Amino acid sequence: MKGKTVLLGLVVCLAAAAVCFAADAFTGTWKLNEAKSKIPPGVQKNLTATYEDVGDSVKVTLDGIGADGKPTHDVWTGKYDGKDYPVTGNPSSDMRSYKKIDAHTLEATAKKDDKVVLAAKISVSADGKTRTVVVTQTGADGKKVTSTAVYDKQ
Fold first, then answer.
1. Homologous superfamily of 24-153
2. Cα dihedral angle (75, 79, 85, 87), rounded to 10 degrees?
3. pLDDT tens-digit profile of 58-80?
């Protein structure tokens, strides 16, 4: 009886470990830590980012404040394969692509009418608690602007 109990405990531990390691580092909800971020005025600021698995794709929902000061909500569903997929709800872009560089790093590109308007590097810390997004985009004045947004896992 003891042997069966030990074996069952080992199986449960291995299954739990497999689930933990299988989870994507980006999955979950991330909240902007404004104190640690450096976001210049006049560019969109995403207050929350939610990554969720949808079948064999990923759904990314961004809620924030636009360059005009109005609330924003956009949704992208696709794969981390570097190909363009439609984004809805964002007046400054109509397509977005994500490319997985490694288990903790993504590169993203947003386009409007086939023209790149934003490039980003998204990194999740080794402990999975912090997400840093370095973005280069065209500001409201037409000039390139770089910002760094730091997010905490919720």
1. Calycin beta-barrel core domain (2.40.128.20)
2. 10
3. 999 999 998 889 999 999 999 99
